[in-house]
Write a structure and sequence with these properties.
The chain is mainly beta and about 110 residues long. It is built from 2 helices and 8 strands.
Length: about 110
């Protein structure tokens, strides 16, 4: 098993933890062709991942070129809570978001 991301103090924005790029195991992620637009953060790009043998599309996102107000999360990676928790092997319903981010492991197949 390999950890997707681990950091002692990820940045919290709008209820989501954003992990610094150096704390994310990008070998477990694959670039997606999905992008979305946020009015104050800018254009988000997405990653997909293989977790426990399943392809999880757009499990994470980041802002490569954020707008000024979001510059502090440039290249930081955030993960969709619901998509991660559904693949967690550890009592997913009782994990807090912080515990999930710190404890979640993924297996490549």
């Amino acid at each position: 098993t390999k950890l997707l991301a681990e950091h002692s103090s990820p940045v919290m924005v709008e209820g989501n933890y954003y992990f610094p790029p150096e704390s994310v195991n990008k070998s477990l992620l694959a670039s997606s062709d999905t992008s979305t637009e946020c009015a104050w953060k800018g254009t988000a790009s997405y990653y997909s991942a293989q977790i426990h043998g399943d392809n999880v599309k757009d499990i994470a996102w980041y802002y490569a070129d954020p707008k000024t107000k979001a510059s502090h999360i440039k290249d930081h990676v955030a993960f969709y809570k619901a998509r991660l928790s559904s693949y967690s092997k550890n009592q997913k319903s009782t994990l807090s978001q912080e515990a999930l981010w710190r404890a979640l492991t993924a297996e490549l197949s």
